[in-house]
Design goal:
Layout: E1 3-7, H1 15-26, E2 31-34, H2 44-47, E3 51-53, H3 62-65, H4 73-78, E4 87-92, E5 106-111, H5 116-119, H6 122-126, H7 131-150, E6 157-160, H8 163-173, E7 178-179, E8 201-204, H9 213-221, E9 228-231, H10 237-243, E10 249-253, H11 257-266, E11 269-272, H12 280-287, E12 292-295, H13 300-303, E13 317-320, H14 325-337, H15 344-352, H16 356-371
Parallel strand pairs: 1-2, 1-4, 2-3, 4-5, 5-6, 6-7, 8-9, 8-11, 9-10, 11-12, 12-13
Length: 374
């Protein structure tokens, strides 16, 4: 069986690329097709695979400014020649699902989400744009919507990364899907009983609008007795640094994996304010035994056992239900009131349900069933 894996773009190791690693292990002889590729930015598991790129790869400043070429993405993914492939596996949060498949091939789409910035979160991505620029982007996204819907007949089966995305696929595409949760590296993010919890909170996140780091900064600015470290980088970093007015809030940028894991193990709790499609960082924190204080909508509502819903000290976190600093402050207070009810071992056990091995086995079994493989 000849296999093609279509992945939107390869310029870093985020959650989608962790899934792609597993796909490469399941299909070590597959070819990867992607809009653009920076081999230095991905793991050896991926870089050792044959990778074929689109014409986007050769456009000026494509690796850094690829989003400027968004109107060209549909043509780029449709340019891939998939003749002779029997099984197409698209790993898609943008246009990968729109690749043209050969007539008799089976196309399985592992869908991280229908394009967020087109279908669900336009204002969060583009709301701050000047009027004219926003109008131009709106025109582009409307065309992308039309194209996205036209390509649905190229997908034989959808698999969603969460029930949240399963519902979004049904609402937007009017298609059914199964859910297979993405992998969490529970072998790297471990519980270390020799490391003591300290009196600081932690957030790990890209510094982009929908992550709502502004809520976290505002909340901790109003609680100067509580310390938080924010790990991550992004185009909002300078703007967020200007919002920091007290010494209890530290923006650390990206740190080495070893330091990141140690901070998770030492933190009093992990704080997260985004509405996520799934949310790997809160699960990585749980894998180290850290409780999570999170906005209780989206994927994290499926991966955190809230204090309000738990029995027998099985809680792994506390939810707040308004994306406002006041709600976060209340949730922190609730967490601290019940601090001793959070059991690090049980918190880690919850994360293990989403382990890499479970993901790999679940996906392998699903594919075998769909392709009638022995």
């Amino acid at each position: 069986m000849k296999v093609a894996i279509i992945h939107d773009w390869l310029n870093g190791m985020r959650g989608g690329e962790k899934c792609l690693e597993v796909f490469c292990e399941l299909f070590p002889r597959a070819d990867i097709f992607t809009l653009l590729y920076d081999s230095a930015s991905v793991s050896p598991v991926i870089s050792n695979m044959p990778v074929k790129t689109s014409f986007i790869q050769h456009l000026p400043f494509a690796l850094k400014k690829y989003r400027n070429y968004l109107p060209l993405f549909p043509a780029a993914v449709e340019s891939f020649n998939l003749t002779g492939y029997d099984f197409i596996l698209s790993s898609s949060h943008s246009v990968a699902k729109g690749a043209r498949k050969p007539k008799n091939a089976f196309h399985l789409c592992y869908c991280y989400t229908p394009m967020r910035y087109v279908w669900s979160f336009f204002e969060q991505y583009f709301g701050s744009y000047p009027f004219l620029k926003k109008k131009i982007v709106s025109y582009v996204t409307e065309n992308l919507k039309k194209w996205d819907l036209k390509t649905l007949d190229r997908v034989d089966e959808f698999v969603a990364i969460s029930k949240t995305i399963q519902k979004r696929i049904n609402d937007i595409y009017k298609r059914d899907s199964n859910v297979i949760y993405p992998p969490v590296d529970c072998e790297k993010f471990i519980l270390n009983s020799r490391v003591k919890r300290e009196d600081f909170y932690l957030c790990i996140s890209a510094l982009v609008p929908y992550k709502r780091i502004d809520i976290i900064i505002d909340a901790f600015s109003r609680c100067p007795d509580k310390k938080i470290f924010i790990i991550g980088d992004g185009h909002l970093r300078k703007e967020l640094e200007r919002k920091v007015s007290s010494q209890n809030i530290k923006l650390l940028g990206w740190v080495a994996d070893r330091d990141l894991i140690l901070l998770c193990q030492r933190a009093k709790a992990f704080v997260y304010a985004a509405e996520e499609d799934f949310g790997i960082s809160p699960l990585e924190a749980q894998a180290t035994g850290s409780a999570v204080i999170a906005y209780g909508k989206g994927g994290v509502s499926e991966t955190i056992i809230s204090l309000a819903d738990s029995r027998d000290n099985a809680a792994t976190g506390v939810f707040f239900y308004k994306q406002e600093s006041e709600a976060l402050i209340e949730a922190i207070g609730e967490f601290e009131k019940h601090l001793n009810e959070f059991d690090p071992v049980r918190i880690r056990n919850n994360a293990i349900k989403f382990s890499r091995d479970n993901f790999k086995n679940n996906f392998r079994n699903f594919i075998k069933e769909k392709l009638n493989l022995n």
